[in-house]
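Hi,

I'm pasting everything inline rather than attaching a file, because the server keeps stripping attachments. The sequence lines come first, and each chain or strand is labelled.
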Amino acid sequence: MKNIIYIFVFLVSIFLISCGDDTCNLDTETYLKVNFHTADTNLVNDKFLDSLSIFSSEWTDSIYYSEEKSDSSLLLVLSPNSDLTEFVFTSETEELKDTLKVYHQNEVVFLSPECGFIVNYKIDTFISTYNIIDSLELLNSDISRKNNGQIQIYF
Amino acid sequence: MVKYKYIFSLFIGILSLSFSYAQDDSFYAEEKVKDPLQLKGIKFGVNVGRFSDFQFKPDRKSYEASVDFNLSNKYFGVVEGGYSEISFNKDLYSYNSDGTFLKIGLDYNLLKKFPSDFLGIGLRLGWSSFSHTADNIEINLNHWGTEPFPSISNSFDAFWFEASFGVKGEIFKNIYLGWAGIVRAQITGGKNSDFHPYDIPGYGAGSKSLHLAANYYIYYQIPFNSKK
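And the predicted assembly:
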């Protein structure tokens, strides 16, 4: 049965030239999408959104709405190691600022061998000051790679 | 994926080879009155394909051996078992796992003309018990920087079915070489766990419900009833 031996040797040689890919090609961040709606005509006239920025006390830099070039929304990442994330909304055109506190549960999830771990979140509740902000609405509390969390902010 | 493409195409190639044999009537012996099944021998095998891991996948050590009971060279009761451990360090975590596996099943020989060789199909039920741990976990997030996380450990029991198509040829007296293309279907295995298995011993990638693989075995058969 020499044919079987030839087949075996051929299959072993094919097996040995197989290869793999070890780089992470996936987005490992999970986002809270914040939609902005500006109804106040004074804020609209002041181009309030164009000068809106957001920072958190633990960040080294701020997020500037004007740099994101988004359609009335920003993608934020909640704190991975705390159940409270505090965002401060400021604008150059307004003296007042608002603080949004988001309370959430964190879940560390293994994404893939190449990418390692990510954090999924579930928003429990939030509180805010209402200086520039008129009202807020939580549209989606579950945050994962497949699903952005979503908060609507009305100014 | 490249590996699977090769294995799949070879699988199809061998299937077509078997069909071409099937059209050759001389390949099969004439129908005979059925003889009662006899235990013709017991084969002990070692999966030599696993040894290639030492060279090509240095982060893993795995061993697999088998025993099969040759019933009239037509049916083979098969028990396969092994051990696997994986250990590697990545930039954002380090990983360790170890576990054992056992497979029980049956091979059916399609050959009737060649008294000692095998070209046929097999079915197995596989079980694995294993645990894994990730240490030194870090997650790198925009604005938050790189954050450390505590270690995570999990233990699992996994079950799967597998179907195979393979060959075993007697290269020297009672020494066999064997290859089998295998399709595995996971029944349970922690695929939906937050820390799902990277690799299930005896099965393969833990994230896949369906897995294609190949075995390369060397066997020694202790012959019974070896009347010549």
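The first strand of chain B starts at residue 39 and ends at 47.

If the labels don't parse on your end, tell me and I'll reformat.
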